[in-house]
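Researcher: I'd like a structural prediction for the single chain below. Treat it as a standalone chain; there are no partners to consider.
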Amino acid sequence: MPKPHLLYIAWGYPPARGAGMYRALATANMYAQAGWRVTVLTATRETFESLTGTDELAEKQIHPSISVIRVPFDLSRGETDLSRWGRLRVESPLLWSFLTALRERIAFPEPRYGSWRGPLVSAAREVHRTTPVDLVIGTANPNVDFLPGYYLHKSYGVPFVMDYRDTWHLDMYRGSRIGSRFSRSARWEKKLIASASEVWFVNKPILDWHAREFPPDASKFQVVTNGFDPEFLAGQIDRQAPQGSLTFGYLGTIYGPMPVRETLEGWRHARSRSPLLANSTLEIHGRLGHYSVPNAEMLELIESYAADGVRYMGIVSKTNVAEVYSRFDALLLVLGQSTYISSGKVYEYAGTGLPIASLHHPETASTTVLQDYPRWVAAAEVSAESFATALIELSELVVSSGPQAQSEAKESAVRFERLKQLEPRISEWTNRVTPGSIPR
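Model: Treating it as a single chain, here is the predicted structure.
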């Protein structure tokens, strides 16, 4: 019996570096493991080397049966070699920038990514011409990733799924709409959602917001939460009873309106009140900002707390997270305030079985994820004093935990494994499609 063919579109796919890459990597891999033929359209290695940095170890985790097609992406905006600039750009950089942005927005109303529409859709059509596609999944952002599915659906009837890893017109920190409902990008979103077979969101608050915005299409909305990938935690060593000092850790990307300063001040206050914390350290691992070079302002802020035992340890490959988690006695979950943000990191944190302190506003969506986690404390509000109280409570939880506490916490988090979130959708589509039934 022929295998069903999935065309998966993800700009951020290995060796891209960034939090969203892991959802894309896992989704394609799990369809391949379920017996699908999988083709991935993504950007070139040169693109990621220039913009985000690369994670070659994550690229090695791609399922061997997956065919990866790397579609050229226009990198001219970031070109610093003046010898490669055209005459217009040399003579009038502002005019060149204006015309470049205009060309991008004419192609698709998404800054920097709009010009990828043509090459991406052409690549999708060629894939379907050579090996008919049974299902398309596009994961955003960028939202241009949704267009191949839309065009294959319109031209050939191929069903397509929109996977909203991020939101398009919802400001997740303010809970308000971005831009006018009558803008070109809003009209595109409405048209895409109306044509899609399913639309996935990472939590229910985001789904509910979109259901209010698009009531005729709400019946095809699904929650497909993030989760953790147990294979990346397989090498983690459980922590033994602490001896005299503790190592606290944060692992993840620091960006946007996250209460980093309050966290560091809270850490300083807690150390002044707790002899145990006074001898302890806080290690921060991960990206500072979205690019390969750390955000200078954030790095300076962290380094200003070096005398308080705070250390910035750099970027971590996903394949090394088990080793990093093995260093920690407890974890700090630092997030910006939002009803809509649950963060993919919260699931992985739970998968470690380590004690966790939530240092964010109580209304943040990750609060509901951890409510039944047995080794969890939460700050009452966003303030240095409240964070200090939570950190002291966290340290007491660490030293009072029995030898089985970490194993028991890991067991409670099994429900957060990513496969358990994706399995229902994979099964649904395996039953719905008939391989090879859609014409080229």
